[in-house]
UniProtKB/TrEMBL annotation:
It comes from Muriicola marianensis. It is found in: Cytoplasm. The keyword Protease does not apply. SUPFAM superfamilies: YhbC-like, N-terminal domain. Keywords: Cytoplasm, Ribosome biogenesis. This is Ribosome maturation factor RimP. Residues 80-153 form the Ribosome maturation factor RimP C-terminal domain.
Amino acid sequence: MLKEEVKSRLDQILLENPSLFLIDFSVSPSQHIKVVIDGDEGVTLEDCMKVSRAIEHNLDRESTDFSLEVTSPGATEPLEMPRQYTKNIGRKLEVKTSETTITGTLVSASAEGIKLEWKAREPKPVGKGKTTVLKSAEVPFTDIVKANVVLKF
């Protein structure tokens, strides 16, 4: 009952704020509601408060005792949805597939997958020494096991 009511409120607030989207939503047996949202331009504190108010103000605390947590994914959290890749174009990602791990700059994202580019040092075709070459790979979403933004410090 509570889960369906919260989901209905969530659907409504996300419809009113199309740049926001749902990453995760759960209701624990102890009535702890956890909502994780992301946005095409990121998520502000105001966005989290807006979603929190939309849920909380429409639930009856007299009939249901609950706690509510609305957050955005942390910087170290893996990317979960194709829509998250679009907002990270231009950033360095570490993408794990079942065969390999690729670290490169995300240059594009489509409905099917992503394209990464990186520079590699390879032996020269003729003569001694190495040369820097630009490599790229297209990775379908179905092949991605885990993808994280590489943070710079």
